[in-house]
Write a structure and sequence with these properties.
With 314 residues, the chain is α+β, with helices and mostly antiparallel strands. It is built from 6 helices and 10 strands, in the order αααβββαβββββββαα. β1 and β2 form a beta hairpin.
Length: 314
Amino acid sequence: MMKLKGYLLTACALLMTGLASAQVQDMPGGPKVNQLNLTTGVTQIARDVAWLHWMMLVICLVIFVGVFGVMFYSIWAHRKSKGAKPATFHEHVGIEIAWTVIPFLIVIGMALPATRTVVAMKDTSGSDITIKVTGYQWKWGYEYLDGPARGVELLSTLSTPRAQIQNLEPKGEFYLMEVDQPLVVPIGQKVRIVVTAADVIHSWMVPAFGVKQDAIPGFLRDTWFRAEKVGVYRGQCAELCGKDHAFMPIVVNVMTQEDFAAWAAEKQAKIAGVVVEPAPSEITGALATKQPLNDGVNQIAPVVAPVKVSEARL
């Protein structure tokens, strides 16, 4: 009876797990259900990292099978019950050379492609666009330092409704992986990311780009990517940074170069349209003069200077 009860409980648990899994779907630009492999990359660096991953795994698997295969065969074929007697030699030049040269060649074969990829990851020269990324508790700040969107600043914050987080309503498709203002970049251009932090250590990570760079207060560290496919790609802060560490996602919108230029022009127009409030002295002067506008109606028209946008460079 107890065994039957245990079987029923196990079956119910498996059924509930299956129902829960059925409700979860692959997230576009983000993780997939039952994903075991690395995220499919949309940059050459991401593909190189995936290739290195599988190359190292295959080499380790071959070494594992070879070493343990020889060991278990030796134990079985030279067991005492068969009358095996151990060899009496103490040195063998050939064996010593082999177990020195072969591992050396294996390490060189692994190190060369890995070094080439790491060097390419750190080569931020010749970038088309430079964006400063600042990590805050718990959001991301973006500042375009050059290119068509120069001077544009964004503050990217989690946009998942609090009701979903508190289980008061069903979870959305992009639960905890959606923001109010995503980072926008053009396709096919080298984007340099300069990373820092304002409070504690964060880490800017987008798996589809093969990018993960720690953001450290007081330090500027850089990385880069060149997206080869239009779409929305998602990542998260990958460094424990406090109680809301799980609530600072990263969303990057990769556009065509034409769409990016239009987006940048729209943002620049909004920046140019910002004006400061007139000083009281200016209002008094305008009341006294009543400067006419283009429609000929006498109205107060104080001279207002536009806000000057700072142009920080690194």
